[in-house]
Structure of Universal stress protein:
Amino acid sequence: MPSGLKRDLGLPETTAIAIGAMVGSGIFILPALAYEIAGTTVILAFIIAAVLVLPAAASKAEMATAMPEDGGTYIYVERGMGPLLGTIAGVGTWFSLSFKGALALVGGVPYLIYLAGGELPLSIRAIAITVAVVLIALNLVGSDVTGRFQVGIVAIMLAIMMLFITIGTPQVQAPRLEGAFDPRSSGALSLFEAAGAVFVSYAGVTKVASVAEEIENPSRNIPLGIFISLFFTAALYVLVVLVTIGVVDAPGGTLGTIDIPGAEDAVIAEAANNLLGWPGVIAITIAAMFALISTANAGILSASRYPFAMARDDLAPRQFTDISERFGTPSKAVTLTGAIILLMIAFVPILQIAKLASAFQILVFVLVNLALIGFREGAVDGYDPDYVAPLYPWLQLFGIVAGLGLLTTMGTIPIVGAVVITGGSMAWYYTYAHKRIDREGAARSGIRQEVSATALDRTRDLFESTREYDVLVAITERTSDRAKRDMVRMATDLGRLRTTVVTVAEFLDVPHRVFHEDHAEVYDLDEPEWIRDESGDRPDWLPDGAFRPPKRTSGGVQIDAKRTDDRPTTKVEHREIDSEDHKEAIVDYATYEGYDLLVLERDRAHLHERMFGNETDWLLKNAPCDVMLVEDRGFDGADEIAVVAARGTYDPIKLLIADAVAEETGASIHLIQALGEDAPDTQREDVEQYHQELISICTVEARSSIIETDDRVAGLARFVGDADLLVTGVDSSGLRGRLLSSPSNQLVESVECTAVMVQGHDSTRAQGLIGRLLMNYVFK
């Protein structure tokens, strides 16, 4: 959408922004610190860090050419992974860039102290604040002025560094570089710890995307600017560090012999002093000042675009979208970012905070790789990048795993800091932004579409299967005659869709006997009297030939191999099973006989039973097959059957049962699904498409209703309305469900019609806790 920002940054300015964001603390401050960790292999550590940055650089280049909008990391993570992770990435990267900008402004202190011989005429903080004010003013004037300024200072800085390399390379003493490219010389752990320490040196490579909306010809200049700056800066780092190690003494594992308090880390200045004398020190100090000012400038420029982009998406106050009519810059976003940097310079121990922000930067790069996977797998409409990252998804998976592994080497404090920033971002999202947005990330939509496609395949397979389907109707002494008839009726209805064998088993408890075998006693019975209606007639729905004696001793009914036609058939048998514990006998019998479906009467649980579990809970937990619980309120046929899904997809057996009963009664099916009131449009569209596919599978007339409500039970009960039968699922009860009853139980108890609750065995076992949480997230 038009934003008012001017596209006036060409390839030179784009590349200069990235180089300027990188060549600062990475080369002038960190080499001495990393040398103490890994010795001469610090050179290899810089190379490893560059390789680990490459996946995020490629991912960001692709997403930037598809969405050339200001905001960079925030935009891609938000669009790919959703507003919550986008908020974390946006807030975290904004702080990280601000921290790094402030660090750069005070990071030249060692070089100024070295040049002054230990004394400075002005306060360090006063100098840093003055430079910061100038840079903030430049960013308020316009990105074209900022870009030209960036090109100028980067050109001067690079000219001095190239001179340093040219003069220093011939004077490198090879013995000082011994083991520099051998990981064994320092150990793998130390090497990767050093790589983690210098990782932040390359963080600026992706900052090009933060100003993507102001880059001309973004499809060409963004990827070129990113990769040119990364490879050039990596080579520059390696050569500068190599020369420095090769010309500077390193006694006791410390690079350099500087004895000026406060200047110990100015090892590049000492190297220049060894090569060129005092003129070299002056030149390197100028380069350091330009590099660090360049880093700070790039930090202000890119960081200020994060609140601007977040405000456009209602994740931050709308005031930050204001564009200066005179200069065409996001003036309020720049002012806020500048104010944060000034406060940091004045009051905060910036070095430690910058280290914490570096750890979060690694985490942000992990999110960038995840975001690209979200876009690719989500099949997002309109996602058409001009540059496509290679080696997908292996390059991104490598970046994710390597980034998380690198994060573990940085110590406890940086990790805790990243967690604090993440927690703060989440708090901001839920207190401010959550109610203002109604969209989701591409990954969430992609996962939902994939889950729906898998559920549809399972449903088609179940409907099209010709395998014999065995049903056990378990009756106890508490089951009423009416409930028995209705349970048998629904079980035999499955025979309208596929060949079905129904075993009606009356489980009776007998007193304990000392001299008695452990297994239950099974008896074959004739047709029960209770199957007949009040007038004594056999019901019309009872299949012909039902209750024939079994033909196999194990208890099931052997279906004749030959059939006279292609229509499914139903056989019903009647048994009595005596045992000392009927619930264990039910599970044992269902397991031994290999039944596909267990039909039980639903047992209403009182509070103490919900807390500690009742018989139904035990059976649901231990059943070896699908389970159907029947809440019988009288079932004399149906005109409409309501099939409900509160969250997630429909279990295939739930739809099969509803369709079979509808076939026998001549009813239609009403698919009802509840979404939250803040459900994004993409979720509703995905669910509507899923319902249409389900309707095409059903053998009877069906329709669909999708409701949006935060009170799912009340909303669903209202739409069930005058239905003659409710088919719903079984919730896994947590503490809230045990205290207040689960939503599915509340729904069954709030309607007047007969209800059926279905628990799919395979889906319940395969889904697990993580699967249920994921289902709640993508379908909430």
About this structure: The two ends are 29 Å apart (CA to CA). The longest helix spans residues 218-247. Residues 552-565, 606-610, 764-775 have pLDDT under 50 and may be disordered.
